[in-house]
Request: fold
Amino acid sequence: MSNKEGAAIRPVAQSSRRAERKEERRRLLIAAARSVFHEKGFAAATIDDIMARTGGSRGTLYGHFDGKLALFEAIVEEEAERFAQAVTETIAPAASGDLDAMAERLIAVATSEETIDLLRMVIAERQHYPGIGEIYRQIVPRIQAWMRRMFREQTGASFCRDEAASDFLADMFLAIVLADTQMGILTGITGDRLDKTHLIRTRQRLKALLALRDHLGADRLSELAALAQQDIEDGR
Reply:
C-alpha cells in the first residue's frame, strides 16, 4: 500500500471509530436513563441524576437527546426492537409446529422486568406527561405489524393462509399474550411473576385460538375480521 493510499484510509477509519464511540455513548445514556427512571420515576428523575451514572456533562447528553422525553422515547424504541426480535425468533419453532416454544418466547419478553417497568412508568406518568403515552401508542402498531407478518409467513396447518384471517388471528394471539400475562402482573393478580399454572393456561388459550381456524375456516375468519374492522371504524 502506498503512502497516498494509507493517508486516504486513515480518515475513514478515524470517522468509523468516532461513530462507534458516539453510538456507545448513546447506549450508555439510554441504560442510565432506564435505571434512573425505574428507581425514581420519570417525573422525579433529573438530567443530573442520569449524568451522575455516566459521567460527562449536560452538553454530552444534549448532543444525543433533546431531554428526558427523548430518552424515554429511545427506551421505548429499544423495547419495541427487543420484542420484534423475539417475534422473529418465534418463526422457526412456529413453523415446526412448536406452539409452546413460540408462546414461551413471547411471554418471556412481554413479562420481563424491563417491559413491566416500562409499562408501569407509562401508566404512572402519562397523565402528567401526555407525550409518554403518545410515544407508546406509536409503538404498538409496529409490534402488531411484526406479529401479523410472522403469522403470514407460516406454512403450517395451524396458521391461516388467507391474509385477512391470518391478521385477525395474529391480533387475537397478541392480545391473549399481553392480556393474560402483562395485566396479571400489573394488577397484582399473579404477583410479580407468572406461575407455571398461569403459563399453562395461557398456552391452552393460544392453542384454542388456533384450533378456531380449523373449525371456522379461513372464509369465516375473514368475515369476522371485516366486521371487527368495521366496528373500529364506526367507533372513531
Remarks:
- The mean pLDDT is 78.
- Residues 69-235 form a domain with the Tetracycline Repressor; domain 2 fold (CATH 1.10.357).
